[in-house]
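Consider the tokenized backbone below.
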């Protein structure tokens, strides 16, 4: 029987860190050491490794708080090039730190259009910790990446034996293993008894496509910031973002997508100056509707996208030259 051929592209993060103390699940990021993709694979039992033919591609070894949209675009190109040059691949697994994993997965899903499964996976505990979750998550990711039924579903996030859609998932807990959740619609499926099950399909997929620039750097990408609303907020932060050159703003408003009067004045000033403003919510779940007031003020609504993912979409939409109606149509998807 032919073994599935899987490319593992490693980018660092908790899954690729180790400490000298097996009890350490906090300080390893600053005082620990990095390990590579081969080391991650070596942590799996030999019978598990024997099930897959793995193609190891080191990409980076940094914490995910150091990742940027420009680096994710480079990662997307790496994935694309890998699949193009290796037509025998059954799937691709990306190991990534969990702090910005939901943004990375969303970014990749918005730009990639590939024939085989792409799975993003991380860990809550370093490789050296008691009951490290990295090996189990990696094994589950390999199973999903080699599953024919995973193709055509967009980029997937696998953690704690659950399969999530990239644009629906969020990190909900700082340290607990059950951290990645899809609060509005739930996981797409699960890995159970060494089998991959999909319980539902996604009837949509937001897709922006490639920005079309050959060498994009962070200083060349449109600046899009997130303004977090709170009682008594005076709009100073919003004006500071605009003054810094923001071309887009995501307003993480109070539920169900509301801001203080002073913030609304600052947002209206931003719209008048040509900044694309998207009203979102700081809540864990639920969407923001483009109600009459927002339409009248020329402000878009983020729909079911959380602020960090709404920002990713707006960056890419601005880079690809989409107008506000096209951008709103993307946010309006469930």
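A designed sequence for it:
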């Amino acid at each position: 029987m032919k073994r599935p051929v899987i490319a593992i592209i490693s980018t660092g993060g908790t899954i690729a860190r180790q400490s000298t103390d097996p009890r350490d699940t906090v300080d390893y990021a600053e005082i620990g050491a990095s390990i590579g993709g081969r080391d991650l694979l070596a942590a799996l039992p030999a019978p598990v490794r024997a099930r897959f033919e793995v193609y190891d591609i080191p990409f980076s070894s940094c914490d995910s708080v150091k990742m940027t949209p420009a680096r994710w675009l480079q990662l997307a190109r790496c994935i694309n090039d890998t699949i193009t040059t290796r037509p025998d691949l059954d799937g691709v697994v990306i190991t990534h730190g969990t702090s910005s994993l939901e943004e990375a997965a969303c970014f990749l899903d918005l730009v990639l259009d590939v024939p085989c499964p792409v799975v993003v996976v991380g860990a809550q505990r370093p490789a050296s910790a008691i009951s490290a979750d990295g090996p189990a998550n990696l094994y589950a990711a390999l199973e999903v990446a080699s599953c024919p039924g995973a193709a055509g579903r967009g980029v997937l996030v696998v953690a704690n034996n659950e399969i999530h859609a990239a644009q629906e998932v969020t990190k909900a807990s700082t340290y607990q293993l059950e951290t990645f959740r899809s609060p509005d619609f739930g996981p797409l499926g699960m890995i159970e008894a060494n089998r991959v099950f999909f319980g539902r399909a996604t009837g949509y997929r937001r897709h922006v496509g490639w920005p079309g620039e050959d060498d994009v750097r962070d200083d060349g990408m449109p600046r899009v910031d997130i303004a977090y609303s709170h009682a008594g907020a005076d709009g100073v932060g919003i004006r500071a973002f605009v003054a810094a050159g923001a071309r887009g703003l995501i307003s993480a408003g109070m539920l169900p997508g509301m801001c203080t009067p002073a913030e609304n004045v600052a947002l209206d000033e931003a719209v008048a100056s040509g900044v694309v403003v998207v009203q979102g919510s700081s809540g864990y779940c639920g969407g923001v509707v483009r109600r009459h007031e927002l339409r009248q003020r020329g402000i878009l609504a983020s729909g079911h996208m959380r602020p960090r993912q709404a920002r990713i979409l707006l960056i890419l939409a601005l880079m690809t030259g989409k107008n506000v109606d096209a951008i709103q149509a993307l946010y309006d998807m469930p």
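The first strand starts at residue 5 and ends at 10.
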